[in-house]
Design brief:
By secondary structure, the chain is mainly alpha-helical. It has two domains: 139 residues, no CATH class; 73 residues, no CATH class. Strand 1 and strand 2 form a beta hairpin.
Length: 256
């Protein structure tokens, strides 16, 4: 299966939740990872999110960049453990002093990094850009801005495919993309970017003609072809979110 980093259609409870509710969960978990200074809580959150991915139909091996994510988290952990000198001595490896505060910061920062990236992964994989934009427009966002948002998200995979086509076409013509200097680098970038620019301008021109033909922007409001049906899971997810916010506030007040 192709490695993915984009919306994957599904019927799981995470796919069916209201997009704005998922945005609220994304903000809450990200904020909680920074506010709760506990390695155990963040490590537990990482394990829970890793268990969620198979539940939404995504295997770990299919996540693009997961190995880089794990390597970066381990690197952050090791750097903090090795170079943070404050705190009491926990172990010593030759001239390297490992303190209890270094261990605490290392596991906390590494787990926090994993939490923030994994929750972002989960949000992107289970949230349709169209549904998110429509929900934002129903909440008051001008539909012109919503259309811009949807178009930008739709253009990303298109331009990615265009870039791959240009790259392979250059390789088929004997172009080497290993620059031998700054001048050679500039020439190769110009040869790569120019076809992308021409392709992008042609798509923008076709899109603008299509929008004019449909009288885009003529009315203040818009109608929707698909209307989202009420989902009982939104209520439970919202209640759990409120309890989570209350728990974080109580923890911070207890620390004070």
């Amino acid at each position: 299966m192709k490695r993915v980093l984009g919306y994957q259609p599904g019927v799981s409870i995470f796919h069916r939740l209201h997009p704005l509710l998922k945005v609220a969960w994304l903000v809450f978990i990200t904020a909680a990872a920074f506010l709760i200074h506990s390695p155990a809580v963040n490590i537990l959150a990482v394990l829970v999110m890793l268990a969620v991915f198979p539940a939404v139909g995504i295997r770990w091996d299919d996540l693009r960049g997961l190995r880089v994510l794990i390597f970066t988290a381990l690197l952050i952990t090791c750097l903090q453990i090795l170079f943070w000198k404050e705190g009491e001595l926990a172990a010593q490896l030759g001239r390297i002093r490992i303190t209890d505060q270094g261990l605490f910061r290392g596991f906390y920062l590494g787990a926090r990094f994993m939490v923030v990236v994994l929750i972002s992964y989960l949000f992107v994989l289970t949230t349709s850009p169209n549904q998110l934009a429509y929900a934002m427009m129903r909440a008051g966002l001008p539909y012109r801005l919503g259309f811009t948002f949807v178009t930008a998200l739709r253009m990303i995979p298109i331009f990615e495919q265009e870039a791959l086509t240009v790259y392979r076409a250059g390789q088929a013509r004997g172009v080497s993309y290993r620059p031998r200097g700054l001048r050679d680098l500039w020439e190769k970038l110009a040869g790569f970017i120019l076809p992308m620019l021409v392709s992008g301008m042609s798509k923008v021109d076709a899109l603008s003609i299509s929008m004019e033909g449909r009288c885009f922007g003529m009315h203040r409001s818009r109608t929707y072809f698909k209307v989202r049906e009420p989902f009982s899971g939104d209520l439970w997810a919202g209640l759990i979110l409120l309890m989570g916010i209350a728990a974080v506030i109580l923890v911070k007040l207890w620390e004070v």
